[in-house]
Amino acid sequence: MLVGIPVYDDVDMLDVTGPFEMFTWAGLDIEIVAHARGPFRFRKGFYFEVLKTFADAGAYDVLWVPGGDPDALARLIGDPRRTYLDFLIRQSRRAKYVASVCEGAMLLAAAGLLDGYEATTHWAFLPCFKERFPNVKVAAGHPRFCLDHNRLTGGGISSGLDEAIKLIELVLGTEVAQSVQQNTQYYPKPPVDSTIPEATACPLPRVTVPAAH
């Protein structure tokens, strides 16, 4: 069972590393890939190295798309070569599950991979579905994750931890998911309580999505 996580500069750290941690405890194989080998940076400048390119990527059973800085998302969406978007499309054709966490849903939506599906994303980006990607059905409320057929989308950053455990349950069963929960001691009880704000405008810079080749 191979999970592929395609990354880029200014990707959210927890969108990648949190699920990576959960998946490793489940014994899943994981590939971190990018358009090129070399150093990449998480949002806020924490650097990491990617050893595999899109051309080297395996056939993923699970495609996991992380969110990131809005400007970084806009660069990928507006790229005339469609390098990232077309990679998502190719991998989605054979994946058992296509997943995103946080604003990664914007990348799936731009690739047309959420058309006709119910989905969620970071609360601040929910208006983007209506404004930019009207073929996506918005999940009611602010769920930590939303599963529609083989599309699994997560809310904001930390939601990826819940979503990762759900994915583990889907592919390996409840007992394995419970074991991961125990090993990572994932029993969250935040010391504060607040309500999620209602967003009124899409914070994603407006770009034109190039037509598929």
What would you note in describing this structure?
This protein has 213 residues and is of the alpha/beta class. It has a single domain, classed as Rossmann fold (3-Layer(aba) Sandwich), CATH 3.40.50.880. The protein has helices spanning 13-25, 70-78, 83-92, 104-110, 126-132, 159-172, 174-183, and strands spanning 2-6, 29-34, 38-41, 47-50, 52-53, 62-65, 97-100, 118-119, 137-138, 145-148, 151-154. Helix 6 (159-172) packs antiparallel against helix 7. The longest helix is centred in the C-terminal third of the chain and has 14 residues, at 159-172. The model has no long low-confidence stretch (mean pLDDT 97).
Provide a brief overview of the structure.
With 213 residues, the chain is α/β, with parallel strands linked by helices. It is built from seven helices and eleven strands. Helix 1 runs parallel beside helix 6 (159-172) and helix 6 packs antiparallel against helix 7 (174-183).
